[in-house]
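Thread amino acids onto this structure.
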């Protein structure tokens, strides 16, 4: 094991530059290809002509990929394989998105997901939803830009801010040139690069360690193999429950109501292609996470007896993977460049997704309803907004440097705003008696409660018993006297020294960051429904446009429920042409309902 300083070779720089060139070339290609039909619909929605496969690739790498490449291996290295339960949460989420959120949005042919909020509630709620999304995305993208820049500066000596500026500049360039089509096809290319990078590390790491069975054995000895953690205490950082349901809720907020992802569904040429894209997306996300977990195990086995973090050759946990790659590929010029390309691919795909979506909602939610300009004008404004938001995200990258481990920081930021936003849409889709007053107070109180818990966790960090960070060995480190260390590098323990007095609410502040989305979601739903009922929501429920309500009880699985029972469960909202006025003719109603159920069942089976 060689701890001497390592850096990029010429071959590494060539590989890295080649990937950036291809990403830019895709944008230029779509400028030339679509130059005669470039309009706002084509630019922001891909002409609604995309097939499921490139969209699925784009969805897989569109939001969490940069954090997966750096954060997941570091997470497994420090806390073990319990993180793999995250994938189960992703599976159930994708089914819910495909069955509830996609049908509602796609059938309305929206360009901005926030149009729904205006149709269901009012313009004020739409503006609030848009502003929350812009804030959430800018904060999160700051983290995503910072992560690969941190990795690049660690392995090449490249200045951190130089790396940040280059990341944002490349994203702005190809996103501005080609619009959504360029972003989706570039995402597909970058997804392949990420998979190749992960597979290369797994193969080389297995060879160096004499087979993956040796890696697994070393990780078992080091306590990294752990799956059966079923404690129900919400203060424990990771359990099977918090990862499955908390993580699934986060993904539901991202894939169900986030403009960056929904914009991809709506670009598909048909509703069935959109559903297929979401379900195929499962394969890509699970593969990326499985490979990330395997790389984390390889890192632990390789550094089992000399932890680079404790030894001091690595400053931050998220620099672990770049350092490992330089170690195991030091005799293979170009391979470290491939890995950094893999990291940058994740970052570029995420940033391009976000700034394109931010541009889209700005034009659709703020400018189009106000100004009667031509499509060509809006297209040029969209390009300018992409450049603007790329610059804004660079500034937020500076703030990200103080948030600690990128994976936890990213999930925390997404959950804080994602929970209230998910609750806002769910209020509209599933509860006909929810009104605009309830939506306003529900969303704002949910956001305030989530931020309150987050700030509290920074001032009163959870005790080590809830963090469960595993121990490291340093017995083979040159000149290092201590045998083992359990140093806590987590952001919650390094933010500030533990305060001697913890108030009673400190138990709430210790809530696992994985549960922030659920916390904000249920707070929004609870307050929203209560305020709606107190402000006449039940009385006005029948005036809601049925197209804005998801017909949950029209599903064929409820076919055995009586008609009157279904009437009350639907809160009196007429859906699928069913008329409740003729309540005496139950036989006719039953026949109509049975026919509708059989049609729905056959569609599901098809």
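Threaded sequence (606 positions):
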């Amino acid at each position: 094991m060689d701890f001497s300083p390592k850096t990029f070779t010429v071959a590494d720089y060539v590989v890295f530059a080649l990937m950036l060139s291809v990403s830019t070339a895709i944008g230029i290609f779509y400028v030339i290809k679509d130059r005669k039909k470039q309009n706002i619909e084509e630019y922001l929605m891909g002409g609604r002509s995309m097939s499921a496969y490139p969209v699925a690739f784009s969805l897989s790498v569109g939001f969490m990929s940069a954090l997966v490449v750096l954060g997941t291996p570091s997470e497994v290295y420090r806390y073990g394989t319990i993180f793999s339960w995250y994938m189960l949460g992703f599976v159930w989420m994708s089914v819910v998105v495909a069955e509830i959120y996609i049908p509602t949005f796609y059938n309305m042919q929206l360009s901005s997901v926030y149009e729904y909020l205006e149709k269901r509630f009012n313009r004020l709620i739409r503006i609030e939803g848009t502003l929350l999304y812009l804030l959430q995305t800018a904060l999160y993208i700051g983290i995503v830009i910072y992560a690969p820049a941190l990795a690049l500066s660690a392995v090449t000596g490249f200045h951190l801010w130089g790396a940040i500026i280059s990341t944002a500049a490349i994203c702005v360039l190809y996103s501005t040139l080609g619009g959504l089509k360029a972003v989706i096809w570039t995402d597909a290319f970058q997804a392949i690069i990420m998979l190749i990078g992960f597979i290369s590390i797994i193969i080389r790491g297995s060879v160096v360690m004499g087979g993956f069975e040796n890696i697994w054995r070393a990780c078992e000895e080091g306590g990294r193999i752990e799956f059966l953690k079923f404690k129900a205490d919400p203060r424990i950082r990771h359990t099977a429950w918090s990862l499955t349901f908390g993580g699934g809720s986060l993904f539901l907020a991202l894939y169900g109501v986030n403009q960056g992802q929904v914009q991809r569904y709506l670009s598909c040429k048909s509703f069935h292609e959109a559903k297929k894209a979401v379900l195929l997306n499962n394969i890509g996300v699970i593969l990326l996470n499985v490979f990330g977990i395997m790389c984390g195990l390889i890192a632990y086995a390789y550094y089992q007896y000399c932890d680079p973090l404790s030894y001091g050759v690595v400053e931050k946990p998220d620099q672990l993977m770049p350092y490992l790659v330089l170690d195991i590929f030091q005799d293979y010029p170009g391979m470290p460049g491939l890995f950094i390309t893999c990291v940058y691919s994740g970052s570029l795909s995420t940033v391009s997704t976000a700034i394109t979506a931010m541009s889209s909602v700005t034009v659709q939610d703020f400018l189009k309803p106000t100004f009667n300009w031509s499509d060509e004008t809006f297209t040029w404004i969209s390009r300018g907004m992409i450049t603007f938001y790329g610059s804004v995200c660079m500034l937020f990258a500076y703030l990200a440097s103080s948030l600690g481990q990128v994976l936890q920081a990213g999930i925390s930021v997404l959950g804080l705003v994602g929970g209230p936003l998910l609750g806002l849409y769910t209020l509209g889709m599933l509860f006909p008696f929810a009104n605009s007053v309830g939506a306003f107070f529900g969303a704002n109180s949910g956001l305030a409660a989530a931020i309150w818990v987050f700030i509290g966790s920074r001032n009163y960090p959870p005790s080590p018993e809830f963090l469960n960070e595993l121990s490291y060995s340093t017995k083979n480190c040159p000149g290092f006297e201590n045998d083992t260390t359990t140093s806590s590098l987590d952001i919650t323990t390094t933010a500030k020294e533990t305060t001697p007095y913890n108030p009673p609410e400190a138990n709430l502040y210790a809530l696992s960051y994985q549960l922030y989305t659920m916390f904000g979601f249920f707070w929004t739903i609870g307050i929203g429904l209560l305020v709606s009922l107190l402000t006449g929501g039940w009385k006005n429920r029948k005036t809601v446009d049925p197209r804005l309500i998801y017909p949950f009880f029209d599903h064929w699985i409820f076919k055995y429920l009586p008609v009157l029972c279904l009437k009350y469960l639907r809160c009196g909202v007429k859906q699928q042409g069913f008329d409740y006025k003729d309540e005496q003719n139950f036989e006719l109603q039953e026949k109509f309902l049975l026919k509708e159920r059989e049609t729905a069942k056959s569609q599901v089976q098809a």
